Amino acid sequence: MTESPRVRTCLWFDDNALAAARFYSALLPDSRIHNVERFPEGHDMAEPGKVLMVEFTPAGTPYQAINGGRHFKLDEAVSISVVTEDQAETDRLWEALTADGGAESQCGWLKDRFGLSWQIVPKRSIELMYGPRAARVWPALMQMKKVDIAALEVAAEAP
Description:
Blueprint lengths: L8 E5 L3 H11 L4 E7 L12 E7 L5 E5 L11 E6 L2 H12 L4 E2 L4 E3 L5 E6 H7 L4 H9 L6 H9 L2
Parallel strand pairs: 1-4, 5-8
Antiparallel strand pairs: 2-3, 3-4, 6-7, 7-8
Helix pairs in contact: 4-5
């Protein structure tokens, strides 16, 4: 077992922690899987050798994913927020995360195929949402699912 970070977020999955960790690590730069722990012999929760826990780091942030069974479900109370550099990165992440059973929500929120909630937030949208033009930008943002930077720019410049 490798040394773990002192603080990290733990994500609970039924039985697909390794698949999720691989998917998330492939999406973002500076990502990798550090450790995969498996159920030992004599453990009554799962057959020996099945994945129990995965330690991984997407974009430099430590996470742990466990296969804990169907006791708990991921929900929108917790989400991973990714600040993107531009519309191209926003589009790439949005498409990957909503593919294969993911679902769009509003204002840059979505759920991926594993049930984890994400916020895909372009850096420019943050600048527009909290500046002097915010009162014009927020109504436009509230109508969007995936954030459209160009549309926010138009709203920001409206009279």
